[in-house]
Amino acid sequence: MARKLVIKVTAGADAPERCSQAFTVAAVAVASGVQVSLWLTGESAWFALPGRAAEFELPHAAPLPDLLDAVLAGGSVTLCTQCAARRGITQDDVVEGVRIAGAQVFVSEAVEDGVQALVY
Fold this sequence. Notes:
The chain is of the alpha/beta class.
């Protein structure tokens, strides 16, 4: 049975190491052939907007735009509905390939057979 990894990242520039770890794990999992669903919540919601990942800096870490592109190319990226609404972000604003969905979708993904959920 194929495994799926659902990763929820709650951190952004406010906790750069935790944020980078989530994106790195997601990108490495995609590169390893794992089905990945990356959820942007809290302060990571800003990275759903064009150009915002390029503003993120963390020494000795892979560039966030590259990690995001890797996940978008081989997995899925979802922006939390409530997090988007609190920041005034709409579907028209986000990077191509990012969807906006809520807790019901997250829960349905996280409880599927063969799924491992991680929260950063």
